[in-house]
Input
Amino acid sequence: MRRLLAVPEWAWLALALSLRWAFALKVGSRMIQVDEHSMSSAAWSLATEGNLGPDHVLPVAASFFACFYKVVGLVPVVPRLGQGLLTTWTTWAIGRFTRETTGSENAGKLALAVSAVYPFFVYYSS
Output
């Protein structure tokens, strides 16, 4: 536990970004998750036609991808890389929020470490 707490914050963030970007680049533009097809088609519809299409998806993720699709076309790897940046920032925010809320530097660093690695293995690895 002490070794984990001794790792600097930037190293956890670098690990978080590396995991997410490596996965995005390995997957490329393939669709591997069940819900990716409907979200991606909704994002493409939003980028090209201005509506979410026939699929019933939440608009936040589709809007995020649609911003990238509008610029680069239907290339899912690009918004995945953007999502990697966003979720790495979220990892930092979780650590900061925990530190500020609890008043404990150790709790903040532990929250940062867990959020850097744990969600990756749950969502991204299927």
Notes: The first helix runs from residue 2 to 6.
